[in-house]
Amino acid sequence: MAQLTYREAVARGIAQEMRRDERVVLVGEDVAGAGGVFKTTAGLLEEFGHDRVVDTPIAEQAILGAAMGAAMTGLRPIAEIMFSDFFAVCWDIVVNEIAKMRYMTNGQVTMPLVIKSGNGGGLRMGAQHSQAVENWAMAVPGLKVVTPSTPEDVVGLMAAAVRSDDPVLFFEHKGLYALKGEVPDGEIVHELGKARIRRPGRDATVVALGLMVGRTLAAADMLAQEGIDVEVIDVQSLVPLDTQTILGSISRTSRLFTVEENPRLLGWGAEIVSIAAEECFWDLDMPCRRITTPHIPLPSADSLEDSVLPSVDRIVQEIRKGVNT
Amino acid sequence: MAQLTYREAVARGIAQEMRRDERVVLVGEDVAGAGGVFKTTAGLLEEFGHDRVVDTPIAEQAILGAAMGAAMTGLRPIAEIMFSDFFAVCWDIVVNEIAKMRYMTNGQVTMPLVIKSGNGGGLRMGAQHSQAVENWAMAVPGLKVVTPSTPEDVVGLMAAAVRSDDPVLFFEHKGLYALKGEVPDGEIVHELGKARIRRPGRDATVVALGLMVGRTLAAADMLAQEGIDVEVIDVQSLVPLDTQTILGSISRTSRLFTVEENPRLLGWGAEIVSIAAEECFWDLDMPCRRITTPHIPLPSADSLEDSVLPSVDRIVQEIRKGVNT
Amino acid sequence: MSNPLARHRYGEHAAVLPPAVDTTVTTVPGGDVPDEIRLALYRRLEELRQFEKRAYDLFMQQLVKGTSHLSLGMEAISAGFGAAMRADDYTLATYRGHAHTLSRGVPMTPVLAELLGRGNGLMAGKGGSMHLTSIEHGVLGCYAIIGAHLCVANGAAWSAKIRKSGQVTVCFFGDGTTNIGAFHEALNYAAVFSLPVVFVCENNGYMEYTPIGDITAVPRPAADRAAAYGLEPICVDGNDVDVMYQTARAALQHAREGGGPVLVEAITYRHGGHSRADPGKYRSSAEVAAWMDYDPLTIYRRRLLQLGIPDDELDRIRDAVRANVDLATEEAKAGPLPDLSSAMTDLWADGGSEWRN
Amino acid sequence: MSNPLARHRYGEHAAVLPPAVDTTVTTVPGGDVPDEIRLALYRRLEELRQFEKRAYDLFMQQLVKGTSHLSLGMEAISAGFGAAMRADDYTLATYRGHAHTLSRGVPMTPVLAELLGRGNGLMAGKGGSMHLTSIEHGVLGCYAIIGAHLCVANGAAWSAKIRKSGQVTVCFFGDGTTNIGAFHEALNYAAVFSLPVVFVCENNGYMEYTPIGDITAVPRPAADRAAAYGLEPICVDGNDVDVMYQTARAALQHAREGGGPVLVEAITYRHGGHSRADPGKYRSSAEVAAWMDYDPLTIYRRRLLQLGIPDDELDRIRDAVRANVDLATEEAKAGPLPDLSSAMTDLWADGGSEWRN
Ligand SMILES: Cc1ncc(C[n+]2csc(CCOP(=O)(O)OP(=O)(O)O)c2C)c(N)n1
Ligand SMILES: Cc1ncc(C[n+]2csc(CCOP(=O)(O)OP(=O)(O)O)c2C)c(N)n1
Ligand SMILES: [Mg+2]
Ligand SMILES: [Mg+2]
Q1: How crowded is the C-beta side of D50, counted as CA atoms within 13 Å?
Q2: Quick check: B214 and B221 in contact, CB under 8 A?
Q3: Chain segment D77-112, per-residue pLDDT in tens
Q4: Which of A113, A177, B101, D191 is close enough to C217 for a disulfide, judged by CB 3.0 to 4.6 Å?
């Protein structure tokens, strides 16, 4: 058992898989020599060498195209898109090529690749370096989408992503890189498509992702002191989505909240609320509520950014208000 | 009053605005000499000349960048992205630049531009030329999003889009280009952000967009024969969203269906259902239902494509099933 | 080549002339091609030509739905490459990819059936005319959005390099494609990593309905950019299949031996419009006529006759091909419609499309 | 220039040398600059230098949050252009854009306040260090995602051309940016439409932590690509502010007179790391030392002294600038926090952010 940061866990997960399978290669801007701008790939060049850990030009389409072509012909690449905001410069390769290739070819092609990316806000980086864009990916058939919230999950989900024969978008929350946590020794492999109940509770189901998981747990502790006992689900994997765990929880609590970092419209919470409104409508005791960033880009000043991302206080207030209506 | 096709209405709407305001310019691939690959810009070069109607290289980022820079400095450009699937090659300019610029600069910049694009399926064009991607745009703060469903609305909404000081993504449904309809003479200008009740009804609210409006109306006729009287709302504008009309309708009918062409997860219907589940939960009599394409890319063969896009029959069945539970 | 950036009224640009007339085209000597290869090249040209004509007829009969882009007039490029490639080399092409797919030995029936949306189609009707793929034959796909596949080609080449397999990746694209960002990213990337990839620009003078010279800053859209990636400018006669075969051999050898990427510009012309919706009226009839005279099949047949190959041997090949095309047409038409349940298969590697538990 | 594509261990690449040593750089004669302009250039260099140092100090005090990218060592390029531009010309720059913004006459206080996230910031705290914009001064923005703004610059140039305003757009970017697709699209597009735009590549030898030669197929990332767009290759000493001023004048004149776009590569170096997180350890100390000796401010001050400008006149300028920087620091620090309600304003032209009725 070791204490690792979330950032170190990324490198550990990749190293675990690169040791196991020499078809696994890593490619991206400054991922090799510099060990990544977020230091999530530190040490990999030293261990696996320049053939398997590759620094590229600033050319996200070329990077993901290379990963895709390699995945189609026998490798299992991991590509880094430094900030998830930059998916927009290579979105064609992701959504029109990588996601659709297997389907269009009627299964002739498999696409075992992982795209890892620093995601999310709270670091005062402004509107072009702070977005949480899991919902962009969730809307595209053919992509698997995960966001771990703890160091252990980083390792386990990275391993699962690398072993998946389908393309996985692996979102690392930049605001969690410094987070420390216990990580068991030895090989760790989780299963894709499992949500985790981080805190059981009876009064409401609160589904959160990434940075919002910790805030929601903190909010749950505060609410507990008021006698409101909420169940906190870390959804972790948006595709595949563990609807059993989520719907099961709602059937027990009768109340649904989502806590999302992304702007409001068509955040991933909209899918979860819609599923609930379709499939467990009769279980619901009260309106569902999505706690989100308003539908705006993120401002850069710390005071402004803090005022719009869901905070522990806001989560407490909204749940309290919701449960008491 | 003239009979115009939807395709002709696009050119008419643009011409109306170009005549009125010489700052309006049009730019895109083959939009000038050829009048557009869908012939939606036929005649404009002849009337307005090469300075205002410009054929470009295949360079969607350059096209939208040019439109953006021009909008920031006094012009009111209309840019064409030929197929909306190609938004993926220039998504950065749309979502990270055009959408965020005014906000990031605290209002120093306005962005009066329109991006028109052929959208949607049913033409056997395969997975890369058939997508309905309004939901991609709806998820991004700073973009207005419209899809007209009749020739008259094409003219009126195009005029509104051009006159808007905010960026508008104008989705033209490729499957409707040949549709004919009455278009009043003279200037037509609609208001952005209004949904239309195409058919009043008491038993359920059915919200549709684009190609699905006609199919939903046809389904409504069939349901009427069975005594099920549904209200059909053509949402038209996803941003701004006319929640008053939609929630007002639900408060009368107590039942909500959406009919969407896009793949299932995080289609625009998820936002509407979520809003209903939050804001008019107590009005709802039964589970909401989204009628969508399954979460897959579109196959190209006609039989397969027809089997996955929501058909009149499927709409009828799902509404009947929903209303009768 | 028409003068780039010359301003003119639409449809009144300078004519795009065949290589024989255009002195900027380097004509690689086409000699030294063994007879049996020449006959194979001739057969391939006939196949591509007759297949595309049949595809056109089937459109006209409304049997091919959606859109489709033919290589009529441009067959020598893919034929030359196909003959020079190793069986395990990779091909990537565009929405205009029937010829490139057939040139790797993919049988006609599944290709035609795919165009007709049948269950016996190459991708069982899920891809369509623009996305022909046959992994078994090294055809890693046809790509319908401009630019992406140049980047994907690098990936196949990278993998071959890591696997030390000696495979070369050949990536075909059009003149119009040289102006999109992905072209630039792919070429620089390939050069930086010295990847075994051959980029083949089929310069048919037009980007859809716009003369390439009108929207490109240099006269030769690919060759004049080669230096920007440290590559040799190569511009050849794309209508001469011997030239294309020799060019392909040299390029493949260079890439296979570790010399890094090659960028080839092949000058050619499409006989018809861009896609089935397009009558191609933006081209002067003199221009079209000049190119019809410089048709790859006509000039090749003439050459073979000059080289002493008997007329009736060529006729026999042509007729055999016709019989094949007829048979493929029958088999394709007789194919069943796809099983509707197949729409829900093979999104994921597990064979299904489930996104939830 | 380091040898492109040379393979080496990380951090052990050939040194990137100053122009004085590197013979591939054309040194435009810097003579003929009038004295009052020289003094203005000197003042600007001092402003940029002292401002960036202050910004650095404020990071160290944790007053500047997020990230920030300084132009220390690279000041001559924006200073030279700023002095040569017409008041209504347009500037677009990158996340490394403090210098470019100040060079257009934007006052220091709002810029510094923006870095501190204050309500008196240039964008009231909504943009931050990477997005400085002052429409009033022709600064159309700083852009933090590589590539896009080259395309946006074309739009401003297009509009100036249509409006016949005579304005020129100047677009600054880095060496690493020459490898992304948008660079290629923008350059070709500008050439095709003969737009009045000057693209300025500030080649500081590095793309973040990677030597540019390692990931670029040609030695001069911009100049060696000029021909791909029918443009002249121009590569100048970016640390010599006279050279930059003259280069800017010539380029602006060319563009203003309808000659179409210009692509300038200016060779320079950043004294510090890429951003505040980066100590820049991938560079040899000999390399850093060589460039510290070739510092634009040092060499310019030496030149002015040689030209007979008295030491104390230069000191006076330097001290006046220091007083300004101190004042700006005080004003910025004293600025209020932004009104929290401002987070919800100015998404739309109506001043609000409502997406529904
Ligand atoms: C990104 C993108 N933009 C536009 C198109 C529409 N389009 C399809 S083919 C084509 C012209 C391509 O010209 P060229 O590269 O010369 O190839 P050719 O068709 O002549 O073989 C265009 C613009 C597309 N498919 N993808
Ligand atoms: C599309 C995109 N990819 C990657 C980045 C991350 N990034 C920011 S600056 C930079 C290096 C840019 O190098 P260069 O163009 O030489 O400019 P410099 O920073 O040296 O001034 C990178 C890779 C980005 N901002 N945008
Ligand atoms: Mg072409
Ligand atoms: Mg640099």
Answers
A1: 20
A2: no
A3: 999 999 999 999 999 999 999 999 999 999 999 999
A4: D191
**Can you tell me the ipTM of this complex?**
0.98
Q: pLDDT by residue (tens digit) across D195-253?
A: 999 999 999 999 999 999 999 999 999 999 999 999 999 999 999 999 999 999 999 99
Give the mean pLDDT of B23-32: 98
Peptide bond into B151 cis (omega under 30): no
Number of H helices, E strands in chain A: 12, 14
Share of chain C above pLDDT 90, in %: 89
Q: Does C210 touch chain D (CB under 8 A)?
A: no
The two tokens of residue B138 are 């709806």
Residue D4 has pLDDT above 70, yes or no: no
Are B197 and B233 a contacting pair, CB within 8 Å?
yes
Residue D183 in contact with partner chain C when CB distance is under 8 A: yes
Element (H, E) at C92: strand C90-94
Instruction: Find out whether the beta carbon of D100 lies less than 6 Å from any atom of ligand 2.
Output: no
Question: CB within 8 A of D90, min separation 6: which ones?
Answer: B73, D138, D139, D140, D153, D156, D157, D160, D167, D168, D169, D170
List the Cα angle C88/C93/C96 in 5-degree steps.
140
Give me ligand 4 centre to Cα D100, in Å: 15
In this complex, which of D160, D162, D189 lies closest to B57 when CB atoms are compared? D189
Say if domain D37-329 classifies as CATH 3.90.640.10. no
Give first-to-last CA distance, chain C, whole Å.
Answer: 59
Q: Using CA coordinates, name the residue in chain C closest to A163.
A: C349
Measured over the CA atoms of residue C27, residue C28, residue C29 and residue C35, the dihedral's sign is: negative
C33-53 average pLDDT score: 97
The residue type at C70: L
Q: What is the pLDDT of residue D27?
A: 53
Q: Is CATH 3.30.930.10 the right assignment for the domain spanning B2-183?
A: no
Task: Identify which of C142, C207, C278 to mutate to test ligand 1's pocket (most ligand atoms within 8 A of the CB).
Answer: C207
**Alpha-carbon distance A161 to D172, whole Å?**
39
Q: How confident is the model at residue D9 (pLDDT cuts 50, 70, 90)?
A: confident
Asked whether the beta carbons of B21 and B112 are under 8 A apart, the reply is: no
Chains touching B by CB (3 or more pairs below 8 Å): A, C, D
Domain boundaries, chain D: 37-329
**Residues whose CB is less than 8 angstroms from the CB of residue D245 and which lie 6 or more positions away in sequence, other chains included:** D30, D33, D37, D41, D79, D80, D81, D83, D84
On whether the CB atoms of residues C6 and C213 are closer than 8 A, the answer is: yes
Give residue-wise pLDDT tens across range C269-309.
999 999 988 889 999 999 999 999 999 999 999 999 999 99
User: Which residues lie below 8 Å from residue D62, measured CB to CB, with a gap of 6+?
Assistant: none
Note if B190 is an active site residue: no
Mean of the pLDDT values across residues D311-316?
98
DSSP A131-177: ---HHHHHTSTT-EEE---SHHHHHHHHHHHHH-SS-EEEEEEGGGT
As given in the structure block, the two tokens for residue C194 are: 């010295």
CB contact under 8 A, C230 and D214: no
Say yes or no: do domains B2-183 and B196-324 share a fold.
Answer: yes
- pLDDT (0 to 100) of residue B325: 73
Q: Regarding beta strands A230-234 and A204-208, do their DSSP bridges make them parallel or antiparallel, or are they unpaired?
A: parallel
pLDDT in tens, D259-274: 999 999 999 999 999 9
The stretch A279-293 carries a mean pLDDT of: 97
Q: Is C7 exposed, middle or buried (0-12, 13-18, 19+ CB in 10 A)?
A: exposed
Nearest to C55 by CA among C138, C120, C130: C130
Check pocket membership of C206 for ligand 1, CB cut-off 6 A: yes
To 5 degrees, how large is the angle CA B116–CA B120–CA B124?
A: 130
C147 contacts on B by Cβ (under 8 Å): 58, 89
Q: Give me the residue from B58, B264, B296 closest to C176, CB to CB.
A: B58
